[in-house]
Amino acid sequence: MSTLRMTSDLRRQLILGAAKRCFARHGFAGTTTKSVAAAAAISEALLFKHFPSKAALYAEILAEECEADPELADLLGREPSTATLVELIKGMVRYFLEISDGPDEEEAQRMRLMVTSHLDDGEFARLLYAKIEKLIGNTFVASLERAIAAGEATRIGSEPLNLFWFAHHAVMSAAMTRLPAIHCLSYGDAASLDRQLCEFLLRGIGLTEAVIASHLDRQLTPAVAQSAIAESA
Length: 233
Description:
- This protein is mostly helical.
- The protein has two domains: 2-51, Homeodomain-like (Arc Repressor Mutant, subunit A), CATH 1.10.10; 61-232, Tetracycline Repressor, domain 2 (Orthogonal Bundle), CATH 1.10.357.
- Helix 4 (54-68) runs parallel beside helix 8 (123-149), helix 9 (160-176) runs antiparallel to helix 10 and helix 10 runs antiparallel to helix 11 (209-232).
- The protein is built from eleven helices and no strands.
- The chain has helices at 2-30, 33-39, 44-50, 54-68, 70-76, 82-101, 105-119, 123-149, 160-176, 190-204, 209-232.
- It starts with a helix and ends with a helix.
C-alpha cells in the first residue's frame, strides 16, 4: 500500500513538473492537458486521474509556490496573535501591490486569469480560493480570535473567515486598477497606498485604532523605508 502511495505521489510530482515547464513556455491559454501529458510521457487519461482539469493543475502549482515561500511559511508557523494578523494583512497588501507595480508579467497574467475566471465558469478561482483558505485560513481566524480576546479587536459578524476574503478581494481590486500600463485609477504614492490600504483593511476586520497605529508605526514604516532605499540603490 505504501509503495503504491509513493508511486502515485511521485507520478503527481512528475506531472506537476511537466506542467510547470509547459505553462512557463506557453502560458495558461496556450497549454493543453494533452501537451502536459505528452511532456510527462503519460496518457491524458492518466493525467486526469490526478488532476481533473487544466485549471486544477495550475491552481496546484500556484498553491505549491505559496507553500514554498519562506516568508509565508515563517509567518504561518508563528503563534497566532494580533501581530501575526497584522503581518498577514501587510503581506497580502505588499503581494498584490508588487504585482501591479512590478515588472513580473507572469504574476500579472495570473491575476488577470483570476479575474477572467470570475467572469467565466469560475473553476480556477474556486480551486485557488480553496487552497488559499486551507493554507492561511486557520492562522487568520486563530489570530483574530486572539486579538478579540486581548481586547485589541471587536468581533464583526459570525463568519470570521469572511473578513479575510473581504480584505483579499478589496486589495485585489485595488491592484487590478494598476495593472494596465496606463492605470485605470491613480492612488498616488505607492508607499502611502500601502499604509492606507493596511489601515483600511485592519479597521475592516475589527482592530482598534490604537492597535493599528501601534503595529503599523512599529512594523510597516521600517519595511517601507527599507523598500524605498532598495529601489533607489
